[in-house]
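BUG: 3D viewer hangs when loading the predicted structure for this chain

Environment: internal workstation, default settings.
Expected: structure renders.
Actual: progress bar stalls at 90%.

Input used:
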Amino acid sequence: MLYVIGLGLGDARDITVKGLEIIKRCELVYLESYTSILTCGKEEMEKLYGKEITVADRDFVEQEADIMLNNAETKEVAFLVVGDPFSATTHTDLILRAKERGIKFQIIHNASIMNAVGSCGLQLYHYGETISIPFWTDSWKPDSFYEKIYANRQHGLHTLCLLDIKVKEPTLESMTKKKKEYMPPKFMSVSEAADQLLQIVEKKKSEGIQEIAFDENSIFVGLARIGHESQKIIACSLAEMKNFDLGPPLHSLVLPANNLHELEKDYLQQFSEKPL
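Structure tokens produced before the viewer hung:
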């Protein structure tokens, strides 16, 4: 039996009662460690859950997941996921593979950024398509996500921007070596995302595009460590967001719709130093 258990967004205590009960009776417990992060360490989780936890990094989940599925054929196995189990396509693929092999599975849901983003006061049913902002390099600067932001704005919808995470990424040099070497973990901040968005604005202007989805004066909402006691939320212009430091990861960014409901505006105001 395979249990895919959401851990929520804060720390080890955010697990549901049902999730904790299942973990305590499982023979093997794996922790997915590369699509998101918790603010606590593995040791704290082991102490609270009363189980030894095996960290399943990117290589394990993408290349060696069969080991876990083999175990799930004869044992009760828990696969722990930060946020909600369906917050990443990798987890969906794992569940489909279990189903194909006839392995019984159960999903235990929890909070994710997709619903906890409501903490900034913007109504969840007014969000359009969620987009991801990747890290740019000197030679690779994709901006296709801009068109999705533009479409959301045209329809009067908010846009949640998920910011890039780089965990256990192999170095370019190690690609040709037998022994892999990895870059240090890297998490995009709201200031880095704002900087890239401002560059897109300048590019669109230089191309003579008159109607742009947003500009340097557009109000954005920066969110950091949502669900944790140290969470921070700030509402300011995109130009100001570039210079804001919201501290440790994880960060997300929201572009509100042009026309806010009065309740949305009133709630969002508490996160801004200036009138919205």
